[in-house]
Amino acid sequence: MVENQGKETRTCTAAERVRIARNPERPHITDFIEHLFTDFFEQKGDHLYEDDLSIYGGIARFRGVPVTVLGHRKGRTTEENVRFNFGMPRPEGYRKALRMMEEAEKFDRPIITFIDTPGAYPGKEAEEHGQGEAIARNLAAMSKYTVPVISVVTGEGNSGGALAIGVANRILMLENAVYSVLSPEGFASILWKDPSRHEEAAEVMKLTAQDLFHAGVADVVVSEPAGGAHKAPEALYRNLDKALSDCLTELRKLSPEELRKDRMEKYRRI
Question: How far apart are CA 73 and CA 70, in angstroms?
Fold first, then answer.
């Protein structure tokens, strides 16, 4: 099941992995959907306020199995990033994700999420629209689902903005992905009052896929080609396709109640 059990194919510092994780040329959720799924049908809007473009997803098939797939969406150009709010969802985005996941639970479809965000949008408007409540509602709902939930950290996964679609039975991380409570710059600013110490912070935070695999947080580390996923994405798609298939095959053997208990026990262990 494990493509790379935390074994590094080359020496790379935590700060270097952060830079690779943030590379705008890395595959994004639209690329993963195009290359790993078929029959994709996009679902839009939260049915309350508006369609937050920083969350993208819908119904698809993975190796013939109907699934719900969703995740954070970033852009590659400045214009795209502005349009997608740099992958930082507002409450509407998390409510949109929740709507898709609730439908998946109702119709017994596995849920696959792709995490790649600097964090939830911190603006005044987001707070006015209930950012904290929207994230909390997602955490509560995901913890109780009786369908398989798999989360893939593809780039950077920071704070509650990542966890809001990350309460999963299995957590997969790409080899150069990072997952943490906040960015290294934020960590250094809070702890040392000096954001320039972000490289030092990255080492202290133990946020790499390898660190988190050894800590029991990440279940699978998916190998990337030398230089990062953007150097040879087709190789990454093959590795990720197999890792997802292995996880989904394993989880579909569990009963609905076993899936719920498996997820709860995972987070109790963490």
Answer: 9
